[in-house]
Amino acid sequence: MLDQLEAQAPDALLALIKMHAEDPREDKIDLGVGVYRTNDGATPVFRSIKAAEQRLVDTQDSKSYLGPEGDTGFVDALKPYIFGKDASMGGRLEGMQTPGGTGAVRLAVALAKAAGVKRVHLGVPSWPNHAQILQDVGVVTCTFHHAKADGTADIDALIETIEAAEPTDAVLLHGCCHNPTGVDYTDEQWEQIAEAFAAKGILPILDVAYHGLGRGLEEDVAGVRKVLAKVPEALVAYSCDKNFGLYRDRVGAFYMIAKQPSDLPAITSNANALARANWSMPPDHGGAAVRTVLRDGDLTKQWLDELDEMRARMRRVRARLAAADNEAPGLNLAALGEQNGLFAMLPLTKDQIASLREDHAIYMAGSGRINVAGLHAGNTDKFIAALADVIEG
Ligand code: PMP
């Protein structure tokens, strides 16, 4: 039986990590894997999380099972950051903890399917796992262009998609810090998106995986809130793995916004059943650490400071790249200054990407995606010079 399986393509980014690790050149640069890095290239545990973890060690008195909804204190503590001051949304909002943002996206798609959604529209390029999840859950993936060549969002493509959608369609959008392009919708465009969703009445699935890494905690969810203010129902997938630095602890949350409060028990019972069949219940530790941070004023302040520091660093790198627009003509580095989050796409050929790796020890995904957090004051000039070199060929 098992010998019937055909080998799957290896994960290209994991292969890149291995190549980078084996490269002996001391000035090598890793722009591949999607984690935040400090000026020294480290991805440290947040100080606020360390302190919260210490408190958990000292005070947690049981690791007995919770339910499929996980740590409800964690789920509730996040709500005001995502949904704003009136985080109850008139009793139409309920959430649950998930294994990372990935678990939340999977649950959103599976719940949408259970409710009758047949096709999900996805702006491309997107995080590769979006398409894999849609396929695995068993809905049809329809695609539209996310970004234009000038480095801004293709709003017309999205609006046309929404307007032409069938009632059993859903649309999956990145809330902020689009992966892999870094291209987010503007506030005015989010207004338009909200209007289009409201007019059509189809289900939005909003994936918020980099909250606070773009413009600010409030700014990064302003678009999501505009949509939620206009539509009758929606699903939100949320990750704490970047903005609390918890990656491998797998910390996420899934929120359901119902047409009316009386719809919520049936919706959440379906989500619970799906969670039980998928993973039974989410891992506890990371969510408990986030709850501990958010329930303590001092730790919350420390977390906000740490997030500010990360965001400011990425904005500095983006500004430096944008200022080098003339040094690498044709790459439109200027647009990177306006874009958000960890990622940007450079219109490089396969040969240019290979030359960056072989001749300059610079590692990036084959798609041309770079992790801007892999750059810092000590290596950005080298990166820009290498770009200029490979462009000249
Ligand atoms: N959505 C997007 C757009 C992502 O880029 C990612 C991961 N990088 C996720 C969801 C899932 O994040 P997590 O690691 O929390 O599963």
Automatic annotation (TrEMBL):
Coiled coil regions in record: 300-327
One Pfam assignment: Aminotran_1_2
Keywords per UniProt: Aminotransferase, Coiled coil, Pyridoxal phosphate, Transferase
Residues in Aminotransferase class I/classII large domain copies: 27-387
Co-factor requirement: pyridoxal 5'-phosphate
Signal peptide as annotated in the record: none
Superkingdom of origin: Bacteria
Quaternary structure note: Homodimer.
Assigned protein family: Belongs to the class-I pyridoxal-phosphate-dependent aminotransferase family.
Protein name, per record: Aromatic amino acid transaminase
Species name: Qipengyuania mesophila
